[in-house]
């Protein structure tokens, strides 16, 4: 018998579109139809992630977050989903309308996830391995930190991806995954940043051939956050995420009008997740031009 999506999922619109799944939608059908990750999508994805341990923050909370850069029209599909579960933890997630689960989020146990794309030579050679979006869903279903790591380290991947997984009790680990192996990055002085190229040994990284700006974005954010380490608050984090060095190919990315229309990208959302308070703050569009809306597991704030 097919399992079916339970009621209790609320969709909060950040873009123009909003959807709510019906109670009788076959979950297996949705997963097979909507869970996808194609290597060619990464050409337009310029994302980076960060994690902050309690020793780096003014309120001694644990944070993960990112700027989510992609094709300009995709901004209109952005939603925040609130999953209220009968079995398994409640959680919030940011995703695109039409994608089952979520990409970035936090659950009621203080487990949080942000992600970004990587490219390596064997991407797509085994396309029927567990989909990327299923792994994200499983991370947000975890009740313990080891359970959250398992979906991204226990089985081979179809395509390269980067996962920053954190826990409210003061732990953040970055997992770089290619189809053949995984590598691990840990915070330095309580701060972790990652862009779109592999930084651990043993990988042949290829994203920088398409996106050379990946080579400076994470390093620049790392320096900015390090300058305020021990006293990082909302203002200093938001300031780092709004940096315009190298504009339009900056941390806060803006559309390059000289690019082909299909290659025009921008920061579609800026996301800051407080794992201690289980709150998710998100903009719809570049953070320099838009305010953050706040959502809390168990109710919108």
The third-level CATH topology is: Penicillin V Acylase, Chain A
Order of helices and strands: EHEEEEEEHHEEEEHHHEEEE
Mean pLDDT: 86
CATH 4th-level superfamily? Penicillin V Acylase, Chain A
How many domains? The number is 1
Largest sheet: 8 strands, antiparallel
The number of E-state strands comes to 15
Looking at the overall shape, the CATH architecture is 4-Layer Sandwich
Strand order of the largest sheet: 1-4-5-6-7-8-9-10
The Rg value, from CA coordinates, equals 18 Å
Which CATH C-level class is it?
Answer: Alpha Beta
Give helix % range.
Answer: 10-25%
Per DSSP, what share of the residues sits in E-state strands of 2 or more residues?
A: 25-35%
* Gap between N and C termini: 38 Å
Model regions low in confidence, pLDDT < 50 over at least 5 residues: 1-9, 15-44
The tally of helices reads 6
Class by alpha and beta content = alpha+beta
Give a written overview of the molecule.
GO terms for molecular function: acyltransferase activity. Pfam families: AAT. InterPro entries: C45_proenzyme-like, Peptidase_C45, Peptidase_C45_hydrolase. This protein has 301 residues and is an alpha+beta fold. It has one domain: Penicillin V Acylase, Chain A, CATH 3.60.60.10. The protein is built from 6 helices and 15 strands. The strands form 2 sheets. An 8-stranded antiparallel β-sheet has the order 1-4-5-6-7-8-9-10, with helices on one face. Helix 2 packs antiparallel against helix 3.
